[in-house]
Amino acid sequence: MGTLQDLLEGLTSGSIEVIDLTAPLHRGTPILALPEAFGQTEPFQLHEISRYDDRGPAWYWNNFTTGEHTGTHFDAPVHWVTGQDGDDVSQVAPRRLVGPAVVVDRVAQATADPDYLLEVADLEAWQDEHGPLPAGGWLLYRTGWDARSDDPEAFANADDTGPHTPGMSVECARYLAEETDLLGIGVETVGTDAGAGHAFDPPFPCHAFLLGAGKYGLTQLQNVGLLPPTGAVVLAAPLPIVGGSGSPSRVLALVER
Ligand code: MN
Predict the structure, then answer these.
(1) Which of 10, 58, 79, 180 would suit a FRET pair with 118, their CA atoms being 20 to 30 Å apart?
(2) Mean pLDDT across the stretch 4-9?
(3) Do the Cβ atoms of 133 and 102 come closer than 8 Å?
(4) Ligand 1 mean position to 41 CA, how many Å?
(5) How much distance in Å is there from the Cα of 123 to the middle of ligand 1?
(6) CB-CB contact of 95 with 106 (8 Å)
(7) How far apart are CA 119 and CA 174, in angstroms?
(8) What pTM does this model have?
(9) Distance from the alpha carbon of residue 57 to the mean position of ligand 1, in angstroms
(10) pLDDT at 196 over 90
(11) What percent of the chain has pLDDT over 90?
(12) Where are the domains of the chain?
């Protein structure tokens, strides 16, 4: 029996479960707001073409508008100035859209402190317990922030000093970019960097270091809490937008029960 046949039998019997890590995409999907000086992304929006009416009696369809970086989405290297010579989202090799995933759980810490930052020492302790971070795989950073994704205000958690959402330290981002063979990192927040990452040195270190190293980002994931610390396989499926810096993506995980 072939490996793919075994996989199909596992899916049929339920010994392999498919978990959707994707947030539903709609007009209320939270988006990033930058300071006024900068260009802004647009929310996701449907524009009805016809719905079984005189515009099209037997069919329903829509156009849609959206930013590339809306909802659960994929950051390609070319998204950041440090990765400008890297792949756009259409150039990411299909082989690199399927890989193992591990989960680092910091729900307790991020619940107690919305500005919580993951540190290199946390990753070293995790690896002492679970083994090395997977080559050609994802580090999924669980913070519990997905519970806020139906409420854009709570999701952004901003005040006079800017957004307060969990992330990782500059040194941690540098470590993941330079000292690991990960595909990239996945987070539950609106972007891979902490809400306060604009004030770090360098600013937005996850973007700067990881995309600069040819790695990727996945954002606004949900259901990461249903995955084991190790052993899941993730399929991340951005649209192959030619020249695109990223794309809304369907992200699925296979988990053995
Ligand atoms: Mn993005």
Answers:
(1) 79
(2) 98
(3) yes
(4) 10
(5) 23
(6) no
(7) 11
(8) 0.96
(9) 39
(10) yes
(11) 99
(12) 12-25+68-256
